[in-house]
# Entry
Amino acid sequence: MYYKGSCNEYYLHTVRYGLLRIRITLLCVFIISQKVISNRTNSLE
# Structure
């Protein structure tokens, strides 16, 4: 019986960490785009 649990746990941890990084990146992009949009609307007025 080879030990497979650690590999699965490592895979789940990597996927979870990757999703967290993607979520943080999307949040940063969203905030930056909101700032750019607000700056454009302010400059148009």
Notes: The CA atoms of residues 6 and 45 lie 58 Å apart. DSSP finds one helix and no strands in the chain. The mean pLDDT is 84. The two ends are 70 Å apart (CA to CA).
